[in-house]
């Protein structure tokens, strides 16, 4: 459903993403990993339309979206969450989500339909739907949920989730990972997930791609990619053994039943 070909993004003389190519299948959860500054957010920003590509193409269901403005890309079915949630603090949770529904529909739906979409998203995410519920009381986990609900209210077929777990405790992280899996399983939404917390990421992704200095250095199933010597050298380092142990446990659990 998403096809990225030879995508390059430069800032002045600096190349942040260099000739990146990858494909995403419908219903897949793809992990996008790599060291700080390797180009993950820039890749998201180009796919979602915040930056135009310097070269290369991005196709969503066969249609070129590279260089389109973010609102057009959103209307075509691509939503993203940001590392740092920035809801409208003066609006309620419901109002924030209704606004997102209007944005995703390009103003082509009425108030009742926008509210229906917002209610549906808030219910799936597990946030209060009553009209008085305020953003103010939400902690880090609640704000991230709201970010996700706003993305879902735009009715995407592809969701780009940017480091959704920063600032959460372990139980909240596991809930967030389960939520992404539910979004895929119940709604058929494809997901690309940028996340540094490998233990949680590995529980839900089908496949991952690894960037280093803006270039793709590995691609495949988590068990293969995390054993790639270059991925261990540039990214996993001393965490590699713990990641392998977890993947082995997951495989044994899957085989047992
Ligand atoms: N608007 C910009 N102008 C100039 N340089 C930029 C801009 N955005 C990103 N960069 C540079 O591009 C490189 C890739 O940054 P990017 O944020 O995409 O990396 P990342 O893999 O998402 O990092 P992190 O894991 O720390 O979020 C960095 O060296 C960054 O400084």
From TrEMBL:
Keyword Magnesium belongs to the record: no
Domain ABC transporter positions: 2-238
Keyword field: ATP-binding, Cell inner membrane, Cell membrane, Membrane, Nucleotide-binding, Transport
SMART domains according to UniProt: AAA
Protein name: ABC transporter ATP-binding protein
Pfam families, A to Z: ABC_tran, BCA_ABC_TP_C
Gene Ontology CC entries for this record: plasma membrane
One of the record's GO molecular function terms: ATP binding
């Amino acid at each position: 459903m998403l096809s990225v070909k030879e995508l390059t993004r430069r800032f002045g003389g600096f190349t942040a993403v260099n000739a990146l190519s990858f494909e995403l299948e419908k219903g897949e959860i793809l992990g996008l990993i790599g060291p700080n500054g390797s180009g993950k957010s820039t890749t998201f920003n180009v796919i979602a339309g915040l930056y135009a590509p310097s070269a290369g193409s991005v196709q969503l269901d066969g249609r070129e979206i590279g260089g389109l403005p973010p609102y057009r890309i959103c209307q075509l079915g691509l939503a993203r969450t940001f590392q740092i949630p920035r809801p409208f603090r003066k609006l309620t949770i419901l109002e924030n989500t209704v606004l997102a529904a209007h944005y995703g529909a390009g103003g082509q739906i009425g108030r009742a339909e926008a509210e229906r979409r917002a209610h549906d998203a808030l219910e799936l995410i597990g946030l209060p739907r009553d009209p008085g519920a305020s953003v103010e009381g939400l902690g880090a986990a609640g704000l991230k949920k709201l970010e996700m609900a706003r993305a879902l209210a735009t009715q995407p077929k592809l969701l780009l989730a940017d480091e959704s777990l920063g600032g959460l405790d372990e139980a909240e992280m596991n809930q967030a990972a389960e939520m992404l899996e539910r979004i895929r399983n119940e709604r058929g939404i494809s997901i690309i997930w940028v996340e540094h917390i490998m233990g949680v990421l590995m529980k839900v992704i089908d496949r991952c791609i690894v960037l280093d200095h803006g270039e793709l250095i590995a691609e495949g199933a988590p068990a293969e990619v995390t054993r790639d010597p270059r991925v261990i050298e540039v990214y996993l380092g001393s965490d590699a053994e713990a990641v392998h142990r977890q993947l082995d446990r997951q495989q044994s659990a899957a085989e047992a039943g």
